[in-house]
From TrEMBL:
Gene3D superfamilies (UniProt xref): P-loop containing nucleotide triphosphate hydrolases
ABC transporter domain mapped to chain residues: 5-228
Molecular functions per Gene Ontology: ATP binding; ATP hydrolysis activity
PROSITE patterns the record matches: ABC_TRANSPORTER_2 (PS50893)
Family designation: Belongs to the ABC transporter superfamily.
Key words of the record: ATP-binding, Nucleotide-binding, Transport
Protein name per UniProt: ATP-binding cassette domain-containing protein
Source domain of life: Bacteria
Length: 237
């Protein structure tokens, strides 16, 4: 299977603090890959590096077998640290503006809204949207340019159980047509239902990468995760 993303030995210091320390992950084309780790482990920093929002101090990142560049990043759709919406615009106006900025047909935006179940609220200002609705619109904008790779930071944040199920089904549907997703989450049950493989970051480095059943200790994913984090921290919680 070809690789959509490979990060090798990625390091980054932010404000004198080591955010990434030799992080390494390999995301295969067409899979849903879960990026796990405690707060401060470096998940968002790694996603920003993949998206080109910051430059690593060390290491390499490749997309679809090519070094990270402005050209390769055009094939990436991102939702990192919130959707960043304009409160005075509605959902339809958001996708129209973004379609113009990205040079893609406006109809693609309508399709993205439809896939996220947003058409019925497309004319409502985002200032009236619930948190879950704003995240849905953020994912729609990430899908707008029909990317080959999606990078989603906590995409089920604020969603009710129905919304979480819809996002899970959307990611699996996208995978079935070859779209790759790198998704971070603190919700282990959602990861177990959605992801093909996972990578676990601890203190900026990769503590585990592989199938979920390799992480679950005694068939208990939560126990296996906490045990891994504890061992990576030298046995201290």
């Amino acid at each position: 299977m070809t690789e959509a993303l490979r990060a090798t030995g990625v390091g980054k210091t932010l404000g004198g603090t080591t955010a990434l320390d030799g992080a390494e992950i390999t995301v295969r084309s067409g899979e849903v890959y879960g990026l796990l780790g405690p707060n401060g482990a470096g998940k968002t920093t790694l996603m920003k590096a993949v998206a080109g929002l910051l430059s690593p101090d060390a290491g390499e990142i490749a997309l679809f077998g090519r070094p990270l560049s402005d050209r390769s990043r055009r094939e990436v759709g991102t939702l990192i640290e919130g959707p960043g919406l304009w409160p005075h615009l509605n959902a339809l106006e958001h996708v129209t503006v973004h379609a113009q900025l990205r040079g893609v047909p406006e109809e693609w935006g309508h399709e993205a809204l439809r896939s996220l179940g947003m058409l019925d609220v497309a004319h409502r200002r985002t200032s009236t949207h619930s948190l879950g609705m704003r995240w849905r619109l953020g994912i729609a904008l990430a899908l707008l340019a029909r990317p080959r790779l999606l990078v989603l930071d906590e995409p089920t944040n604020g969603l009710d159980p129905v919304g979480m199920r819809d996002i899970r089904e959307l990611l699996r549907d996208l995978a079935s047509v070859g779209v790759t997703t790198l998704v971070s989450s603190h919700q282990l049950d959602q990861v177990a239902r959605t992801c093909d493989r996972v990578g676990v970051l601890v203190a900026g480095g990769t503590a585990y990468e592989g199938p979920l059943d390799g992480l679950a200790g005694d068939n208990d994913l939560e126990a296996g995760f906490f045990d891994l984090v504890t061992r990576a921290h030298g046995g201290v919680r």
